[in-house]
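Protocol step 4 of 5: obtain the predicted structure for the target chain.
Materials: sequence only (see below). No template structures provided, no constraints applied. The aim of this step is simply to have a reference model before the mutagenesis design in step 5. Sequence pasted as it appears in the construct record:
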Amino acid sequence: MRSLRVYEEAWPLHTPFVIARGSRSEAKVVVVEIEEDGVKGVGECTPYPRYGESIDSVMAQIMTINDALEAGASIEQLQQLLPAGAARNAVDCALWDLARRRAGARLVPAHQTITTAQTVVIGTPEQMAASASTLWQKGARLLKIKMDNHLISERIVAIRAAVPDATLIVDANESWVSEGLAARCQLLADLNVAMLEQPLPVGEDESLGNFIHPLPICADESCHTRASLRALRGRYDMINIKLDKTGGLTEALALAKDAQAQGFALMLGCMLCTSRAIAAALPLVDNVRFADLDGPTWLAVDVEPSLNFTTGELHL
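Step 4 output (structure tokens):
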């Protein structure tokens, strides 16, 4: 017989996290613990208001399947019990963790170093350039630049001047418009930006098929599960896989396989989260072009035991 425990946590950030959608000062997560025969599996999710989720709604959603989980519902059955999203992610990852602990297995090989993006949040061109320079000096080589719809050229020119050798990816979080998009993409390409993530709002992706991309364009908010892929063909070159969107590792692995078979490159992303959430996503890391796993590095204090992050790197 299994037991289920569901609870919320709030983790203060050391620095405000500012993107086109607003500013955050803490990471609010839901944790699921599933215990069976004295072995406990743990999963974590970050409810995201952009997708209509809240702490309360996600916890309520998980409790609707309490009886099924306690009766022994499998990972495969879970995919039918809950839709893709944060709630299923926490449960799915808890079941994976439980199975792994019962088997005494590791998620990924130890003794490897993963390059992760470090995020530069929105500010003035001077502030963003200074942040990029500081991260570079501390060892980050891949920088993710958050943008809204203002001062695009001023910000990216200042950042590139500050870190001429860094690999830059730009994330607009749906804040741009189709008018002038091709010219903006060319500007980024001229400044040797490696990738542009989700420039347009979900539902306006068709404009991305109207010009030859001078740099890869990655779908984030427009890609949740395998069902998303059909609408992305001819419009995006990459997809950003996040377990909170796919509803857990199970669908994420299937999405990665199908996306690669259809010619999409892969990025592995995260929400603001603790090391628990990053550990759950690590089976995907070997097949991605970019890993953006810096969520826990924004926390004032991480969960224990935590993963071993240094600036721009995750050490396993």
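Step 4 remarks: The two ends are 33 Å apart (CA to CA). The first helix runs from residue 55 to 63.
Proceed to step 5.
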